[in-house]
Specification:
This protein has 253 residues and is mainly beta. 9% of the residues lie in helices and 67% in strands. The chain has one helix and 18 strands. Strands 1-4-5-10-11-14-15-16-17-18 form a ten-stranded antiparallel β-barrel. Strands 3-6-9-12-13 form a five-stranded antiparallel β-sheet, with no helix packed on it. Strands 7-8 form a two-stranded antiparallel ribbon. A hairpin with a 2-residue loop joins β17 and β18.
């Protein structure tokens, strides 16, 4: 009888704990509009890098995060980053070799460094004054480098393109420092490459949180810098940078 009572008590405790954990599951969804200046060079691996004059363009990110109350399991965040810029160069009688073709004179590029972040993290601190998340991320690239040969009228007549499909293992940290009662906070979101140590992606800024009945709203403004400095990455050597100011919103359920 005692064993039965003990087993029932243990089962009830497990059910209660599971129910409590389920009730603590939360979701975050958000998006940023990013006005980024683009710069840098790239080339087929083993060839001299070519620089382009890039146009400033609008970039963006959207994300969703799932947080729960199970201490041993990490939280999960999925972020999609759109990074696409166009540039031009005039190389005269020089030749740029790319993907088995030769380009000269007036050329242009479509540099697409779009990527998806898969982040696993733990909440080490979470209160009105200080919040700190630490973890690891995998930045999966799914863009491409494209070189276009232009004619005298600036019209593309042929092109060569190399796709990017490799990922980068990165360390992840997200910190916030707030002023209780005002909803104002400062934040820093940092990703640093582990296997590609010259790749980083960070943002710094200020935010305001507004508490609601069904969900809380955060409005964010700040500065973001993405550096893609790699050697022989999917057959490409590159040193590109997207940096500039952004504004965004996040909803917490």
């Amino acid at each position: 009888m005692k064993k039965t009572i003990l087993a029932c008590a243990l089962l009830g405790s497990m059910v209660a704990t599971s129910a409590q954990a389920a009730s603590l599951i939360g979701f975050k969804v958000g998006g940023d509009y990013w006005k980024a200046d683009t710069s840098g060079t790239f080339a087929e691996n083993g060839q001299p890098q070519q620089g382009f004059n890039y146009d400033s363009d609008s970039q963006g990110s959207v994300w969703v995060a799932i947080e729960h109350g199970i201490p041993i399991l990490p939280n999960f965040k999925l972020r999609e980053n759109r990074l696409d810029a166009s540039g031009k160069a005039s190389i005269g009688n020089n030749v740029m070799k790319f993907d088995g073709q030769e380009f000269g004179g007036n050329i242009s590029t479509n540099t697409d460094l779009s990527n998806t972040d898969f982040v696993l993290y733990y909440e080490l601190l979470d209160n009105d004054m200080v919040a700190l998340d630490l973890g690891a991320a995998y930045k999966k690239m799914h863009g491409s480098y494209r070189v276009n040969q232009l004619d005298q009228n600036g019209v593309g007549v042929r092109y060569a393109e190399k796709d990017l499909s490799t990922g980068i293992v990165m360390a992840y940290a997200d910190a916030q420092v707030g002023i209780p009662g005002l909803g104002l906070y400062g934040f820093a979101d940092v990703m640093i490459g582990v296997d590609e140590t010259s790749v980083y992606d960070y943002s710094l800024g200020l935010g305001w949180q507004f508490d609601g009945t069904g969900f809380d709203t955060k409005v964010r403004v700040g500065y973001r810098d993405f550096k893609f400095d790699v050697s022989n990455f999917d057959g490409v050597t590159a040193n590109n940078q997207f940096k500039g100011y952004f504004a965004g919103v996040e909803l917490t359920f």
